[in-house]
Amino acid sequence: MRLILWFAFIYFISAQTLVEGNYVENFKGVNYILSSNFKTWQDAENDCIARGGHLTSVHSQEENNFLNTLINTRTTPSNTIWYGGHRNANRDFVWSDGTTFSWTAWNGGEPNGHFTENCLHRLSNGLWNDLRCGQTFQYICKLDKVATTTTTTTTTTTTAPSLPHIVNDTCQPHFLDASSTIWQRSTGFSIEPEASGVRCDRQIKTGWYRFKSPAGSIMPEQCPNINSCGTTLPIWLNGSHPTEVNVSTSVPVCVVYPGNCCAHKYNIDIKRCQDEVQGEDYFVYNLPATPGCPMSYCIGNETRCPDGERSPNGFSPGCTNEFPKLKGKPEVTVGSHGNRIRFTCDFEPEQIKNNAKYKVSWYTRTSDGNAELVKTETLHGNQTKSFLQNTDGQKFCLQKNFFCEVSSVFPDSEDISDTKRSDDFFAGIKISPTTIDLAENDAPKELKFETTVPITCEPLFPDCAVDLEVAQTQNNGVLSFCKISFKKGPAGQVKTMEVVAKRDFIDDGDKSMKIKFHIPLTLFVPDWKCHAEFPDVTVHTKDVTTANCYSNGDPHITTFDNRRFDHYRVGDYVYTKSGARLFEVHVRTFVCASVSCNCGVAAREGDDVMVVDMCRDNVPRARFASTVEPQPGTRINRSPDGKVFEFSFPSGASVRFEARRWFGNTYYANIVVKLPSDDYKNTSGLCGIWDSSSSNDLTSKEGQKFQGGGQAPLGFTESWKLTPGSSLFYHRGGPQKCLAERFKTYCFCSENAQNNQVINCTTNAIVDRPKYIVGNNQYQELNFPGAEHCGKRRRRRRDVETQKTLILPDDGEDAVYFYDPIQPNKTLPSFPTPNGITEVQAIFNCDKALRESESGKVCLELVPDLDIDGIIESCVEDTKILDDIEVATSSAVGVMKDACEEVTLRNITLWKTDDTTGQLQPPKAVAEILCPNECSGNGYCANATCVCDEGYLSADCSIHEDDPPVLVKVAFNGLCDIRQKDCVRTRVIGRNFINSESLACQTKALKFTTDHSIDEEFNGEATIQSSELLSFAELSCDLPDVPVDIVFSSTQKGIPVGGFDIRLSNNGENFSNESSQFVVYDSKCLQCNATTKDCQWKEDSCRVNNYCFGKGDAHPLDWCKVCSGENAFEPRYDNLAPVFRPTEPIKVFKDQEMSFVIPVFDPEQKRMKYELIEPPSPPLGMEISNGGVLTWTPKEENKTFTVWIKVTDICGNSSYSTYDFEVVNCPCQAFNGAECQRGDNGTISCVCLLDVPEKIVPLAKSVNKKHLQ
């Protein structure tokens, strides 16, 4: 029964290990089989042997590439594969087919499992790793000859070839087994009874075999134990090997069963052969497949040396522990020596022996992971450090992995050694990570650069540095800088660089770019003359949408998620606000017919606030409401016709304000807000919650959701209304500080054809908003008038006369006014209108105006699906309310043009390749129709520039040449308080202005009488001053000088009021008939009439030499007097007397000069007068200086003196204090006549006055105060 069970087990195993079909590829005449099975390394090797080969060996980069391609195309790329590498008895890796292990592709730090990881497998990245042999993976067999193949429709399969026969020469074996696991056929190798993956020769091909094993290469002639020879049922030679050469002998073999050394017997042929080259005999065996499994032929009878012992071949006989042993692995470290980088291979023997020898080999890794020998040296005895340094020519290059290998031997047994390898050490600049994923709304991510080696310099150039230049292949991201410098210093220097995705406001999909690094030739950092290439960093950027919110007409709002509603209320409202950052936009509306219209917008990002407001006098007035200089990238731009204003922010957000004529000289505004992806899912206000869903757009401030169309629910709109005084229109700047983080500078780092860096760094580099810029349609920047900003100051216009720029006037408090209009309460009109316009007529005219306008024809041809239905709907509603088809259709065409511009700029599929640059550009056809206001019907649009009909002028052809400029008035009632504003330029309101370099103002100085009224008879000299267009209704006039000076002078009489009479001209020659007066005054002592411009003294003021001082101000020549009003000064009553600080008695030394600073201060920080007073009389010779320093040389010792001191401030207030001075003996005199010197902390130091022998000097140490008691 026992025998039956064994045979059942044998045939069950045999049935489970049949050869299956697998992928076969041919490379240079050799077939490689990629098995689909998963096996242990030994089972995979056995299968390859059965197929007529071995697990594959690799001998070149070309062969490695072939194998990688085979694996990546025939398996899941993440699969790992067994190769034929394994450790031999000396712990070195060899190939199982016996070929030389000459080419490697180890992964970094591998191989590292010296005692437990003995087999080689390929990682998913194509590099090699050592691993425990018992794990199961797919594998590749490399055959000894080309196999025959059969092809099916799905895979190529192979049948195992028969082993090659050498005709008439059986001493040339069909197969030479010299694999790394051949030793496991030895009788000295046993397995556990329940072991898996046991050896079985059931599938070998019948043929002649030769075995070469370090455990013995012939079959044993003695019965082995069960579970030996790496199998359960070993097979041994039950006879003797032949003694004659080249004579084949049949000898029986036996299969060992439990309790039976020869349970099954059959014969095999054996032949004795001679290797004349090697001078040795060997045997070949004609072996059939075993009758079952697990059965295997035994070869050899030696055992593997136990751990801690070595022999020449790793097996008995001769195992010994008599060799120099090493503790752990060697360690590679780095430092500097003689101004050069030096690596150290440090190893530790278990015991220092004088006759020990250590062979140290230094290697670097090539780019494909192979080991490349750099240096070998032999150390002796107690030498346990090997050095590697670039001192005698170039020995190594940086930016590579280094490792060392140490073999330790005794001279009389150099074939017995302990070999250990260090971990890999990366030497260079480590960059991490190598892949970055960034969405366009992500915060910047960091690249880290760390030196793992010291930076050393040539002796004559101690300030050298290694400069790592940075370049990028695409512009979809920007970097914080384009060069990283590492100065002389130890390893471990760390630098970081930010990478941020560019906000491009284009739907152009996801992109990738490479960041490349390069060190230019550096002569002064010699070790960096040679280095491997730096790895690229790949940056993947994800395209994220942007959005716009529109408010047009009276007004119709389209939210970020494209929901439309009407807003007919007036006041200040939150248009949109971001919850992700400090950004918000407020709008101001006024009563317009029976509803409302936009008349102002204010926007804030960080601590920058900009306003355009025409609600007060129908003049669009752009200004910076913030009182700090705007961060770079924050701009106000004005269109050529002065009707469009754009706010731009560093984040990419923008606000557009377009003034449009309603009737006569009355205007309303269309407003557009564009947001970057940073604000997605973070907005609130009238523009809704931007989250790609319009269902929640009508969400109130309190979170209540409203529904409906047409006029928006009051519960929604009024929740976003701001109380008077709380909106951004009232912003006054506050303390001069930064309220939010300033935008950083980022760079686009590229390279030209000569590999030279091309660097462009700006604060708004993260924004790349496309624009149409053609013809003369250029916007002009309106610059900040100037103020303190985070420690910086921008120069005023007076300081930069040659600067060609438009600087806004300083409006001061005049720009802010109270606004709380009454809500419209008229009944909403209906069709037909009072002028008889029907709804059908309105629809027809609105549709016709859009489709037949020049811009409509172009836009609808380019974008047939442009959504104009909503624009028509708003146009019809405007016609009904305004009862004016022309105004409604003009506004609608403008809205359509804005929408067309936005769509064609955003949708990159509509872009065309420019013939000149070869770059993609937005369609020129749209650019050419972007003329302002459709040229007012008085011209045509060509290349985005209005070509006016004869007789018409200006950017939009709205002014007839016979219409001279009209001056209405100087803004803000023509008054400028020098205490509130700089008054170097003023706004002048009018009409019929033509934007050109010829704009000019004529100024004539005004003369004021002694009672501060204007002398009407005085006719001052006319001067021509430069002028700039601020808007279609306002100019900026520079003034020749500021006629009022507030800086007091005792010799130059002050002028508290002055001014100019101003006229305007479009050409610098013909000036307006009208003039207006601009009066500058000092509000400290004058108040002026806004109508007559006459001024009079204030009662609560004073004058000194005609300079103004307010009540409570100090007299400029006598600080102790203050202005009490009525031009009178009185004594200052809030002045405080000087304050003394108490001290302990002061110890002084006989015959040594004392210097003591009186501890007193004046609360008002004014100068003080010091006096010694009596009684009692001060000590003889004591004096006090004007600066409050007492000096005295005591002549008596062991005596205390009390001194009274009086200190008086400039206003006569005095304080008194006493100080005690105790004269004591100086203990330092005992040290060769040294002097005592008092320290600030109360200690006394001895100072030697004479040349004293060096051995005495240490005696003159500090003496504590207690030594003087």
UniProtKB/TrEMBL annotation:
Q: Which range is the signal sequence, renumbered to this chain?
A: 1-15
Per the record, the coiled-coil ranges are: none
**One Pfam family of this chain:** VWD
GO molecular function annotation? signaling receptor binding
Q: Is Signal given among the entry's keywords?
A: yes
What residues does the VWFD domain cover? Answer: 547-728
Instruction: Return the SUPFAM superfamilies for the record.
Output: C-type lectin-like (SSF56436)
Domain Ig-like stretches: 324-417
* GO annotations of cellular component type: cell surface; extracellular region
Q: Does the keyword Signal apply?
A: yes
Which SMART domains does this one have? CLECT, VWD
Report the residue ranges that make up the C-type lectin domain in this protein: 27-142
What keywords were assigned to this record? Disulfide bond, Signal
InterPro entries recorded: C-type_lectin-like (IPR001304), C-type_lectin-like/link_sf (IPR016186), C-type_lectin_CS (IPR018378), CTDL_fold (IPR016187), D8C_UMOD/GP2/OIT3-like (IPR057774), Dev_Signal_Modulators (IPR050969), Helical_Vwde (IPR058727), Ig-like_dom (IPR007110)
Please state what the protein is called. Uncharacterized protein
Organism per entry: Clytia hemisphaerica
The lineage, from the top, is:
Eukaryota, Metazoa, Cnidaria, Hydrozoa, Hydroidolina
